Amino acid sequence: MTILYNDRFVDRENIQVDIEDRGYQFGDGIYEVIRVYGGNLFCLEPHLKRFARSAKEIGIDLPYTPERLGERILELVKKNNLTDGTVYLQVSRGSAPRSHPFPANSHPVTIGYTVSAPRPLEALQKGIKTILTEDIRWLRCDIKSLNLLGAVLAKQKAVEAGCQEVIQHRDGMVTEGSATNVFLVKDGTLFTHPADNLILHGITRQVVLELANELGIPVREEAADVDDLFHADEVFVTGTTTEVSPVVAIDGKPVAKGVPGTITRKLQQAFEAYIG
Ligand code: PDD
After folding, report:
1. How far is CA 74 from the centre of its chain?
2. 186 counts as catalytic
3. Is the dihedral angle over the CA atoms 142, 144, 147, 148 positive or is it negative?
4. How confident is the model at residue 204 (pLDDT cuts 50, 70, 90)?
5. Could you tell me the distance, in angstroms and rounded to a whole number, from the CA of residue 138 to the centre of ligand 1?
6. Which CATH class is domain 121-275?
7. Ordered DSSP codes for 146-169
């Protein structure tokens, strides 16, 4: 498999991560996951923009422009003959003797690789089960940081409960999933947490908000509380690998009738048309 390593293409076997890479030791870096449908990168531009923003927010100076990076990713997809799957992209602050503050002269280390993966058709059709869990993450969830321990622990809890995702809440207000944004429908209106510091500003979330507008579905970017969630007519989650997945159960209780709702289905159809 060919990997993008800084600005070069290298075989995976020829790459080594240094023991003092700050991504490895501190989670000091940021990442993106970009979907590939039929060999085409989906929403490449907003992903590159968010990558650059995350890097800037943690003071990593990228030694390339988003355009250059975009070209390299396109080449990577071609080199690996990827049809359906994802591109994983990350940049760490680089390697330096272990010490918390930014090192004086480290160089960012960028890697990108492709993963072949089908669309999550079963989840899209049948929906997913979730559990509610307290959001114990930091207060800059808008940065797509490599520090994913909060998400890892949350997702593990879901798996142990026989579920596919968590719905996190902070002091009773619903934030997002472990790797998804959360939406609920009540009386025909779509609710989702505002794009502030408590959630990742999901690219799928943004696409869904635009599609909802086009379909004339009223949208309110307002945090719902846990009680609203349990009384919702429909709940769904969105994400690069999840697309628009209906939530059919939370903590073992069915969402409404326990089957995907009509507005969720409408948005799924619109999303399907959008990805082409
Ligand atoms: N996760 N919220 C969180 C915390 C996420 O990690 C993600 C994406 C999303 C959805 O964002 P988007 O629609 O831009 O993919 C929301 C990726 C897929 C991951 O970590 O694998």
Report:
1. 20
2. no
3. positive
4. very high
5. 16
6. alpha beta
7. S--HHHHHHHHHHHHTT-SEEEEE
Q: Residue 6 — very low, low, confident or very high, per pLDDT cuts 50/70/90?
A: very high
Residues 6+ apart with CB under 8 A from 148: 27
Among residues 79, 144, 157, 186, which one is catalytic?
144
User: Measured in angstroms, how far is the CA atom of residue 202 from the centroid of ligand 1?
Assistant: 6
Residue range 214-230: mean pLDDT, rounded: 98
From the CB of 203, is ligand 1 less than 6 Å away?
yes
Q: How far is the CA of 105 from the centre of ligand 1 (A)?
A: 31
Separation of alpha carbons 204 and 210, rounded Å? 10
Beta pairing class for 181-186 and 173-174: unpaired
Residue written as tokens 């930014």?
Answer: 102
> Within 13 A of 27's CA, how many CA atoms are on the CB side?
8
> What CATH number belongs to 2-116?
3.30.470.10
Give the closest residue to 28 by CA, choosing from 89, 94, 88, 87: 94
Check if 204 has its Cβ closer than 6 Å to any atom of ligand 1: yes
Atom of ligand 1 nearest to the CA of 204: 13
Q: Is 239 in the pocket of ligand 1 (CB under 6 A)?
A: yes
Q: Which residue in the block uniquely carries the two structure tokens 């049948």?
A: 126
Query: Which of the listed residues 31, 33, 168 should we mutate to test ligand 1's pocket, taking the one with most ligand atoms within 8 A of CB?
Result: 33
55 touches 84 (CB < 8 A)? no
The mean pLDDT of 251-264, rounded to a whole number, is 98
Chain centroid to CA 192: 15
Domain ranges (residues) in the chain: 2-116, 121-275
Ligand 1 pocket, residue 200 CB under 6 Å: yes
